[in-house]
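Hi R.,

Quick one: here's the Galactose oxidase-like protein sequence you asked about.
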Amino acid sequence: MTAALMRSLLSATLIMVTLTAAAEEDWTALPTLPDAEGFAGSFAGVSGGALLVAGGTNFPDKRPWEGGTKIWYDTIYALEEPEGPWMKVGQLPTPNGYGVSITTEDGLVCIGGGDAGGNFRDVFRLRYADGKVTTQALPMLPKACAFMAGAEMGGVMYVAGGIETPTATKALGTFWALDLKKVDLGWQELPPCPGPARILATMAAHEGVVYLISGAGLKADAEGKPAREWLSDAWSFQPNQGWKKIATIPRVAVAAPSPASVVDGQIIVLGGDDGVNVNFEPKEKHPGFPREILAYDPGSDTWSGIGDLPFSLVTTPAVEWKGRTVIPGGEARPGKRSPAVWSGKIGVP
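And here's the predicted structure, written out as tokens:
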């Protein structure tokens, strides 16, 4: 076989793999959230078979660079079937956004978050049944916290990083766990990730391992305001074994939908802000965030790109519902939310 023929066959194989990956992606639009602007920083998960979306923020009148005011919400919406409709089914204890959402066997757990006045320690479970939501208080966080990452593994909820106050110029390096079978023990402080403290990371759990990926560090700028440091490192944590650095993510992915889905044993990172357009002007024409889907294979400790999303949404949860990954709204570009809700079946070649 000639070298030219070998190159031709290799090229054809790569094209087939790429087309296979693209063909296996299956994204459909669900009914849009019943708000013209949509929300970022909402809580979202599943209870009683229904998809719940609660709280979040938007700029209803003007964009932030036009002097617009960010508004926090407390409404809880439910979608019982993919065809809709969305229904208002309750209210959060207080307007809230930018906490962690974790779906458990016993409902949606909402962790921390905050509003314009400060961040919260509150943790509570939302249960949906017969068209109504009930709220159950759970042990409070050791500190007020928002913009953190979280995931559940083996009945234990894990939360990493975040900020204690809305104007903080330093992220928390904390790592906490709450055993849902032993809630009376409260949150336990675990060894922190050895990497930089961070906000808006992506977390996932798979086969006894928790993964913490990307995010942003914080520092004070020349005016003393918080400025981001874009992080591409990634880590794994095993109880009783501790932290281990894993392969660096190919590009920064801040505020990607989290907890990340696990497909065929691979951790899936959907989009995320890479910081390339952080100073883009004019702001109203910002092109949005990366749409690339990245997959991490723990077995080979490697990353790969497996396609592109039909949307650009960050600062929103990822929810597993009816065998698919749902992305309920989020931030489409800085200062602009989206009411779109996407449901995807992700294939890994």
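The domain at 18-343 is CATH 2.120.10.80 (Neuraminidase).

Cheers,
M.
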